[in-house]
Amino acid sequence: MQNNPAGMATLKKISLGLYYENRWLLPETAYKCGAFALPTKFGTLGLSFNQFGSSKYNENKFGLAYAKDFGKYLQIGLQLDYLMLKIGNDYGKYNAVTFELGIQSHITDKLTLGTYIFNPVNFSFEQTLYHEKLPIVRRVGLAYQFTKDFIGQCEIEKDTEKEGISLRGGLEYEAFKSFYIRAGVQTNPGILSFGLGYAIRFAQINVAAQLHNELGASVQIGMIFSIGK
Q: Structural domains in the chain?
């Protein structure tokens, strides 16, 4: 749901995810999010919350999502977003609404294609002095399962707030049953990442570290709980 709402279309169990990132090891730049997904016979419903910052400055996003599986070759997800920007010392609160759309396709048993767009109609924070525009973010990515234990992913992103494009690549290897080793790289900005994951019957825990080429290190932890048979 956080990266592409279409991904939750194939969920079979009620799921709850929690995530925390200490960006650049500064409490003022912490990133937190939570997500809940409920599969039904009509599709999957989702709720999410994201927050970046501290009490003096924070960016918040509340999302309501719906995803539908149309068969092996097509999953579509739509999320409506309410965004709130809060600046301390009585500078005020600003809000905006937008949406994001994702499409996913299992082209073969090993190859999956995904595409995603955030804020395609260019909404803005209308209350700000200069009607600050929200960024438009577009992504296209591929995932390929080389073996049952080894997956590779790549992605290209265009964000209107940045010059140029960002490229990402990642690998995941199941070293032994339910224990995963992950590594990734990104350009614009340059980021290296390394992570571990472990899954049990009803939960998965993931930890990771990132190194930004200018801002330094970040640490991340996430948990996903699945409810039901």
A: 5-227 (2.40.160.40)
> What is the four-CA torsion angle of 176, 23, 20, 81, rounded to 10 degrees?
-120
pLDDT tens sequence across 37-87: 999 999 999 999 999 998 889 999 999 999 999 987 999 999 999 999 988
Single-letter code of the amino acid located at 184: G
- Output the six-digit token pair for 32: 């937190």
- For residue 81, the model assigns a pLDDT of 96
My answer on whether omega of the bond before 189 falls inside 30° of 0, hence cis, is yes
This prediction has a pTM of 0.91
Is the pLDDT at 130 greater than 80? The verdict is no
Under DSSP, is residue 188 helix (H, G, I), strand (E, B) or coil?
coil
- Number of separate helices (H) and strands (E) present in the chain: 0, 14
DSSP category for residue 110: S
pLDDT confidence of residue 126:
67
Phi–psi pair at 136, nearest 5 degrees: -100, 125
> How many angstroms separate the Cα of 75 from the Cα of each of 4, 5, 100, 122?
11, 9, 14, 24
Cα–Cα separations (whole angstroms), residue 71 to 32, 38, 106, 110, 218: 33, 19, 9, 16, 38
CA dist., res. 151 & res. 57, Å (int): 38
CB 218 within 8 A of CB 210: yes
For residue 123, pLDDT beyond 90: no
Cα–Cα distance list, 193 to 55, 63, 209 (Å) = 28, 27, 6
